């Protein structure tokens, strides 16, 4: 699993707690179950109302996917394609049927299978493009559910604080209670902002980032499969795919290839 | 009907009330008819002024549509298309005229009818694409009317609160009334934010989500109809349409097909 | 004239006044000429500075256009096209020269004229598309001028309030005047928000909505004219244009046509 | 020079001053050099840090351009093209070499020169399109520099006010100074909002508006030059270019032309 | 290195400090380690949680790139291309293999190498376009990481302030401590806004600006390489590439060329 999101969220909560204690505060005073109930309940209600049931059901699967460890590097996929292209040139497309692929990428597998089945190049390209778009679309919905929650949470917090202030201001008879009562009212705002910024919005952004990365990897895979099907030169395919890598990695791979050739 | 929006809205309101009572507040103090009148009246006025009469008239129909239960799953539509494609291959296009379609999808029906009428493939595709765009456009207008209302509502609330504060500050002679008077002034802000976040914005987002889902289903239907008209292989059509499903459902359908073949 | 914008704006102002009186306020206390002068003057200044003179000159014409009553329904235009297509098929394009068109739509008129003049189909389509884009562009500028005003107005209000508070806070010698003085300072914020939300922003949104509707009607007109010029079947033209109507209206028109045929 | 931006900015500042005096304020109390230094310095620093040096260098040239008087009307350019097209039809393209063009539009001049040089139509069109895109791009950068400044200015103002409040709240020993000290702290917010809304944002919007107008004019010029190169009929060229004018101006020009023909 | 970002950031901080001292504040009162810890820690946590580990690792490299000095002017690249085009016309493409290029631009080098290798023009164009898109994409991710940090920072500041206020309001027993305690609470807001506006957001905008400049340069390079490969006339290539320069620089280069010809 990609640990950075957990580290970031837990770290953010710890930092807030340490800062509160550092300034002489008492963490127990920051526990206010009614405010917590309001934020979580109200945000959940407003978010549920904003999406069809079918999309709400998918949100956990989608979130889990965003937390996975990226299982392969772009450069590994490029290497796999160069190897496949070399084999196909030598032994023909049908060789792929019994050749185990090193990496477990569903789009790559489906593409190779369709190629072996003799699918027409344009149809194949269109199918894979649709599949990439569907996957990106589903992740974007997951991201936007969390973003919606992160948008409602602070305003629900303001609702809680205003309700608290209305309550306080309507009962000014006992001025000694004024401070603590206002303090309790502000807890709703505090929770609303914290839940949004330390929890919902980072998760939303993480899913959106993963969606973009997956789409980019998918584009590379489609380019690679189309090129193999066209029977292009492995050397050209490699150059094509290296364009999807950043300069640092592309230079490294070219250097490695040059070194490999020298050895031979 | 898709119950989740009702559940979310009612749940959100209940959560706010429970939290208010939990903190020792009196729900009656949160009833302020003048503030409620201001928010609902002012928001309605500003929203009516923002759209042509013809669009305002459509908003309720459009909202009702967003609340409907999604009547069919993507996988059911794919199955229908595979079955139709098999029949058409065997018996020709005219067979469709007397064949009852399992699902009641207006775009699908119109597409099949146009196909039977012998409409030119490009014209047919263009007509269906226009119809999808029109439907999405109409839903988006409904969504943006509710979003506009949700944007005006909190600012009308601030107008109410500032008017209340101006009234209070101009009459400081009786300091005992100060607290309750300010409390009443804040009710407008409370209602403005609550109406926007628990009512208007969730409905707006729900309609927009439904618009996106409908457009995606429509794309699948157009792809399916075009492929049948082209006389493509049912197996290829299925693979094409499966690209519109998420991986989980696509894998399930492929497994079911494989199982079906084994039985034979 | 489309009365809904006037109704919405006047209604919004009335609602605010009624709510103010309801809460025991005095409407006279809400009249503050200096704050009104600041909001209107400052907003006008900042808005004038934001656009070229030529665009400022057009803003009133553009606003008046948005307030007009929509002069024809989409279904009427579809009927006109079906009738024209039938006539042209029977009597040839030149018949159009002496045939009065039922509806007064400038784009439609120009398109028919160009058709009679024997303009090349591609050139004709391009000309009409450019004209639609120009009209939409001009309306969007009008909308964005009002939106800019609606954006500046509340911040000018805050400038007024801060100036008032600075004045008040610098003269704390007489505490009795404090309340009314702060109250006056807040009037600028009140006016700033009210002018934006009850006046400028609704007008801006109305113009933008009208721009979208006009562009959609224009698209239908271009589709219709191109189809007539191609000499297409009136039945096909009708089906094509019905794709631009929502399902409800399209079904109604198909039913009416079917009824018409039965009578014959 | 287009005087409206200067009028708007100076007018906005005057309106603020008059309103301040009207409410009994003293303009001298609104002069706070330290706050002014903070806003101008801090905004400049943050804005400089946001752009490459090369773009910062261009901002003044770009601003001056936005303040120029629009040197020609769209209808004048259309007339020039009709005249040129008539001449070219009669005397051939080379005639353009010695023919002085009435209006001084760099894109028009370059286009005519390239046409005389015998540039290939596609290459010519591409060159002019690139030049329009470059010019629009440069103006947009200028606009976004001012917009960035207008975004930083109010937040720098809040920084100043919070710093002032921290200072005040840390020294509550002398309550008489409290009011004036808070008043001084608020000056930073006042300046921050005023600089953004009366100065930076209007200039940014003005430049963006001019960029849009220039791009639209450029489109018309490219259309005109391409049509002349194709040797199209002057009457068709006029109709084509009139599509870029709003209906009012287009109708006027058509009327004038009809009148001209009658005289002959 | 491009010094302007450093100058802007350091200058912004200095301006804030000078303004604070000018108004009689004590800089030591503005040092609050707990608030600084909260802002930096909380912002880092929320930002880490928002991106995959692989993207976080690249952010420093990406930031360093944005701070580099722009190594060449557009006009220099145009000159290089004109020279290369002249040589290639005279001596053929293979001449490029041993010809040192004056400027060190990785895309230009790769493009020339691919041209010498005899790559097919369409493939070459596609490869370079992909490489430009990849580079721009990577810079945009870097920019959006800083932007995300700049978005979280002020809200973490508000969390700190609300926590401080809750602490203060819960302990009103000693009114003398009230002022300084609130003052400390506000430090979190101050730091949150300052870190965002003087540090994170300018860096984010700088990276985004550099990404746009690089993409524009890349477009020019692709245009130049494609034109050379097509064997186009150096004079035409120059005119084509000059379209990417602003009018001032383009006019200068044309004047220089005319002068050069006169000398001959």
Query: SSE string of chain A, helix = H, strand = E?
Result: HHHHHHHHH
Q: Structural class of the secondary elements of chain A?
A: mainly alpha
In whole angstroms, the N-to-C terminal distance of chain A is 39 Å
Pair with the biggest interface: C-D, 56 and 58 residues
The geometry of chain A reads as: elongated
Over the alpha carbons, how many angstroms does the gyration radius of chain A reach? 27 Å
Helix content of chain A: over 70%
Binned strand content of chain A: under 5%
Q: Report the sheet with the most strands of chain A, covering strand number, pairing sense and barrel closure.
A: none
Mean pLDDT of chain A, to the nearest integer, reads: 89
- Give the uncertain stretches of chain A in residue-range form: none
What's the oligomerization state? homopentamer
Counting DSSP E segments of at least 2 residues, the number of strands of chain A comes to 0
**Helical region count of chain A?**
9
Protein architecture, described:
5 copies of one chain form a homopentamer. Chain A has 264 residues and is mostly helical. Chain A has helices spanning 4-22, 33-49, 53-67, 74-91, 106-116, 121-169, 178-229, 234-242, 247-263. In chain A, helix 1 (4-22) runs antiparallel to helix 7 (178-229), helix 5 (106-116) runs parallel beside helix 7 (178-229) and helix 6 runs antiparallel to helix 7. Chains in contact: A-B, A-E, B-C, C-D, D-E. Chains C and D meet through helix 2, helix 3 and helix 6 of C and helix 1, helix 7 and helix 8 of D.
């Amino acid at each position: 699993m990609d640990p950075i999101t957990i580290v970031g969220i837990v770290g953010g909560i710890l930092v807030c707690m340490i800062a509160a204690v550092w300034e002489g505060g008492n963490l127990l005073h920051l526990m206010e179950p009614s405010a917590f109930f309001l934020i979580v309940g109200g945000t959940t209600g407003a978010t549920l109302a904003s999406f069809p049931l079918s999309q709400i059901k998918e949100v956990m699967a989608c979130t889990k996917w965003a937390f996975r460890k990226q299982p392969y590097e772009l450069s590994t996929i490029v290497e796999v394609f160069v190897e496949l292209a070399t084999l196909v040139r030598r032994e023909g497309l049908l060789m792929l049927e019994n050749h185990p692929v090193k990496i477990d990428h569903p789009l790559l597998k489906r593409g190779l299978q369709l190629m072996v089945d003799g699918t027409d190049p344009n149809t194949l390209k269109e199918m894979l493009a649709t599949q990439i778009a569907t996957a990106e679309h589903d992740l974007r919905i997951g991201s936007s559910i969390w973003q919606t929650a992160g948008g409602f949470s602070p305003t629900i917090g303001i609702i809680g604080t205003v309700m608290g202030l209305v309550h306080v201001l309507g009962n000014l008879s006992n001025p000694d209670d004024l401070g603590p009562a206002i303090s309790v009212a502000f807890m709703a705002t505090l929770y609303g902002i914290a839940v949004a910024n330390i929890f919902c919005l980072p998760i939303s952004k993480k899913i959106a980032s993963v969606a973009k990365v997956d789409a980019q990897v998918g584009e590379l895979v489609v380019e690679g499969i189309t090129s193999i099907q066209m029977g292009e030169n492995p050397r050209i395919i490699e150059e094509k795919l290296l364009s999807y890598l950043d300069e640092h990695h592309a230079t490294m791979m070219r250097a490695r290839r040059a070194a490999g050739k020298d050895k031979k």
